[in-house]
TrEMBL record:
Pfam families: SOUL. It comes from Canna indica (Indian-shot). InterPro entries: Reg_factor_effector_dom_sf, SOUL_heme-bd. Belongs to the HEBP family. This is Heme-binding-like protein, chloroplastic. The lineage of its organism: Eukaryota, Viridiplantae, Streptophyta, Embryophyta, Tracheophyta.
Amino acid sequence: MGMMLGKISVETPKYEVVHTCSDYEIRMYSPRVVAEVTYNPSELRGDRDGGFMILANYIGALGQPQNVRPEKIAMTAPVITKAAAAPEKIAMTAPVVTTSSDSGGAVTMQFVLPSKYTRAEEAPAPLDKRVVVRSEGEAKYGVVRFSGVATDKVVLERVEQLRRSLERDGHKVVGDFVLARYNPPWTLPPLRTNEVMLPVE
């Protein structure tokens, strides 16, 4: 019931808030290990979130874990989505992050793995070659939080508002946005927690 009502009861990435103002905050995220998959939604029946099941199978969220140990890996939040860069395989972590690329519509979705995995080599290797596990270093983001359904239109509006606010205050944006969603799809929309994040210097 808690998940339906928006309660976040899983591990989330560690960060320090380095600046806060009325319409956003700047966070410094600690290094983490992620599992990710890059895909073109058109190849998965147009499902923009089609990478979720691939990653869920890797950690064993829905049954036998699809990794070499096999070891069940705890789900974390958020799920991260972003535009795909040049093809590159990346490790799974939590949250799940998804991005989409300007070239070909490819999307990268990430799960941030639990903090007990401090290096990618410590996490079990995936059986599905589409899943990449990798380490990510410390990263600084401008972040804005919002509720509701994270449609493409809503997300892009939030990203542009955040970009304008960051530039207004002298922060330099150094990359594409990331969408972080903290709740499963059955959570009531007004109780969902979403964030858009822009990397800053």
